[in-house]
Amino acid sequence: MTAPNPVLKNASILNSRRIHEGRHHLRPDPVVNALAKYSLAYAAERFDILLYSHCSLSNHQHTTGFDPHGQHPLFRREFHSLMTRSVNCHRGTSEAKWSPNRKSPVILWDVESVLDEIAYSIANPCLHDLVDSPEEWPGFISTIERLAGPPEWVRRPSVFYDQKGDLPELVQLQFVKPPCVADWSDDEYRAEIVRRVDQKCRDARAQRRRERRTVVGRVAVLDADPSDRAMTPLPLGELNPRVACKSVNLRIAILLWLKWFRLEHREARVAFESGEREVVFPFATYWHVLRYGVNCSTTGPPATM
Questions:
Q1: Which residue in 11, 233, 252, 291 has the most C-beta neighbors within 10 A?
Q2: Cβ–Cβ < 8 Å for 97, 45
């Protein structure tokens, strides 16, 4: 059984999903870009997720955002479902898209983690040696100019979507400034993200020079077969983090709380399944609250964003 994870309100999250076997089913083209943009905007609008940044690569996606109501599991389900069905329609395929591994979101607990993951998602095409800078990436990516900018109206694509169906013809897509830096001006916020993205890209270029490697390049990315797969497999036994926090002491406290949460959740679940309906689940329990309306403790984690 998958270990339970807490779902917190007013939390910043990083959501990453990888295509099964690293296949390039999301290889950029105008249709895939439009499908990704509409699916993200619709799911975020429906479940009140405030987006910070997004990047769709050929075989995975990164999204950062703020979840005021603890609804990111529903947001992620809707977004990934729409992408699966619409891309299958576009590609003429019918199989499942996403890897079942490493699918849980990462909670970003401090300002440094929030800013670093926003920059990481934008710098991703450069970090994976696909292009030399994020501006060259031909896929759907939140550009610096869009951060903390006005909303963009996104039209429902003609591929997959029923033009007479219930989904809206137009949805708003906006990348907002994180609440944790609400006292910064928009220009200060964008300048900080630019600084971090540039540093990550410089480090990636320096590493390529040391190893005498070059980028794949925009033309080769666009020419790739969607059935191709990533040449570098994911390392076996790699950690699958659930939290990101730059403060060592706070990170230790959070990990101890997460360990306590899982132990308490297991005991409560066993008692509930044995018929004890008044059992108290730990704070931030999600699925059992959604499905059964169970009682939860009011003792929360050490700190939240």
A1: 11
A2: no
What the block records as the tokens of 51 is 């987006």
Q: In terms of Cα–Cα distance, which of 267, 294, 295, 299 is closest to 283?
A: 299
Q: What is the pLDDT of residue 305?
A: 52
Buried b (16+ CB within 10 A) or exposed e, 16-55: bbbbeebbbbbbbeebbbbbbbbbbbbbbbbbebbbbbbb
Report if pTM > 0.70.
Answer: yes
Residue 61 β-bridge partners: 17, 56
**According to the model, what pLDDT value does residue 237 have?**
58
Q: Is 63 left (phi over 0), alpha (psi -120 to 50) or beta?
A: beta
Q: Which residues pair with 50 in a beta bridge?
A: 66
Indicate the pairing of strand 243-244 with strand 106-108.
parallel
Is the Cβ–Cβ distance between 218 and 138 less than 8 Å? yes
What are the average pLDDT values for consecutive 10-residue runs of the chain, which has 305 residues?
88 95 94 98 98 97 97 96 96 88 85 97 97 97 96 96 92 98 97 98 97 96 91 64 91 93 96 96 96 93 69
Residue 111 is encoded by which pair of tokens? 């300002």
Query: H or E segment at 61?
Result: strand 60-67
Candidates 305, 299, 304, 272; CA nearest to 288 is 272
Smallest Cα–Cα separation from 257: which of 267, 242, 270? Answer: 242
